[in-house]
């Protein structure tokens, strides 16, 4: 397993590579971020932003989402995967926050994960980005990068990955590190064809070294 010191070195490198890493889901408030994150499940941020550009013009409040039929909302997000279920969850979520939270998104994980369509990852994104509460949201990029680098075990589930990262990363770096690991995974250590040849972490990366031995990486 990777030592904490080596992991912090890796984070420093990602910090150098992506000093401006940030949440790429366009939003203006916690409510819009919650909707955008819910829509982003198994879907790219680029596509979500394309859809929310018009969506957030048409629907500004939770009540707006309830003033239309389910079919109309489904139609407005139909280019997004799982749109039928997502539209249903958005309307249920709007009903809940109107009934229980005065139309506002609650700022605690315990409450967030009880909202329709909001899992632990979405809750962590909303906490960290909208409310500045330290949290580590594990998406596909975070999971892949931390496993390739050897911080986490291949067999670890998402919760174990989250706990390991939080244990090995100082709390004041969680938010910044979270976005930098995502950028590193999204733009450099991609699922297909990771950029091992030009990777500053190659010498210490277990996946990179494996690829090197197999002749998949030419340096
Ligand atoms: Fe990813 Fe390759 Fe770099 Fe390892 S060496 S972090 S697999 S790009």
TrEMBL record:
[4Fe-4S] cluster binds at residues 189, 196, 199, 205. It is an enzyme of class 4 (lyase). Residues 39-187 form the HhH-GPD domain. Coiled coil: none annotated. Its EC number is 4.2.99.18. The keyword 4Fe-4S applies. GO terms for molecular function: endonuclease activity. Gene3D superfamilies: Helix-hairpin-Helix base-excision DNA repair enzymes (C-terminal), Hypothetical protein, domain 2. SUPFAM superfamilies: DNA-glycosylase (SSF48150). Binds 1 [4Fe-4S] cluster. Keywords: 4Fe-4S, DNA damage, DNA repair, DNA-binding, Endonuclease, Glycosidase, Hydrolase, Iron, Iron-sulfur, Lyase, Metal-binding, Nuclease. Belongs to the Nth/MutY family. HAMAP family: Nth (MF_00942). This is Endonuclease III. It comes from Solibacillus palustris.
């Amino acid at each position: 397993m990777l030592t904490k010191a080596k992991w912090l070195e890796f984070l420093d490198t990602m910090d150098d590579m992506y000093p401006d890493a940030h949440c790429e889901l366009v939003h203006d408030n916690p409510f819009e971020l919650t909707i955008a994150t819910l829509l982003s499940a198994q879907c790219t941020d680029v596509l979500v932003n394309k859809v929310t550009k018009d969506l957030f013009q048409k629907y500004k409040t939770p009540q707006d989402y309830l003033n239309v039929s389910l079919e109309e909302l489904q139609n407005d997000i139909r280019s997004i995967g799982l749109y039928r279920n997502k539209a249903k969850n958005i309307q249920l979520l709007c009903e809940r926050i109107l009934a229980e939270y005065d139309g506002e998104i609650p700022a605690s994980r315990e409450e967030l994960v009880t909202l329709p369509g909001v899992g632990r990852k979405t809750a962590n994104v909303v906490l960290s980005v909208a409310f500045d509460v330290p949290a580590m949201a594990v998406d596909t990029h975070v999971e892949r990068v931390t496993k390739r680098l050897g911080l986490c075990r291949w067999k670890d589930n998402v919760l174990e990955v989250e706990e390991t990262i939080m244990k090995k990363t100082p709390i004041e770096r969680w938010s910044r590190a979270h976005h930098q690991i995502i950028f590193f995974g999204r733009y450099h250590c991609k699922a297909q064809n990771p950029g091992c040849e030009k990777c500053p972490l190659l010498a210490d990366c277990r996946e990179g070294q494996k690829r090197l031995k197999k002749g998949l990486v030419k340096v």
